[in-house]
TrEMBL record:
GO terms for molecular function: lipid kinase activity; phosphotransferase activity, alcohol group as acceptor. PANTHER family: ACYLGLYCEROL KINASE, MITOCHONDRIAL, SPHINGOSINE KINASE. This is DAGKc domain-containing protein. GO terms for biological process: sphingosine biosynthetic process. GO terms for cellular component: cytoplasm; membrane. It comes from the Eukaryota.
């Protein structure tokens, strides 16, 4: 096994143990901005992040249109939201999610 593959498996096992300690399902929603990170975010997700999620059995769904999806996303369906991009996507998603949460609380 190549060093990179071994590292991915080790991280996957560690992530699995960590998530299992919460006693929660592992459902993540991932926003990938293909133009973020010097236009490398999609490649980074596909080659580095997605294999980690898959190796630890995380259920994950991806989207690109963050504002539209974030405003209609049922946050109860997921345990976490992951943003693969620069700061802008994180700010947009958190602002949209915060405004949605304020409607409920």
């Amino acid at each position: 096994m190549a060093d990179g593959e071994g590292a991915a498996v080790a991280w996957g096992e560690r992530l699995t143990r960590c998530l299992d300690s919460f006693g929660r399902p592992k459902r993540l929603f991932v926003f990938v901005n293909p133009f973020g990170g010097k236009k490398c975010a999609k490649k980074i997700y596909d080659t580095e992040i997605k294999p980690l999620f898959e190796s630890c059995g995380c259920e994950h769904h991806t989207a690109r249109d963050r504002v539209e999806v974030a405003s209609s996303l049922d946050l109860v369906e997921y345990d976490g939201v992951v943003c693969v991009s620069g700061d802008g996507v994180l700010v947009e998603v958190s602002d949209t999610s915060r405004s949605l949460m304020s409607e409920f609380f």
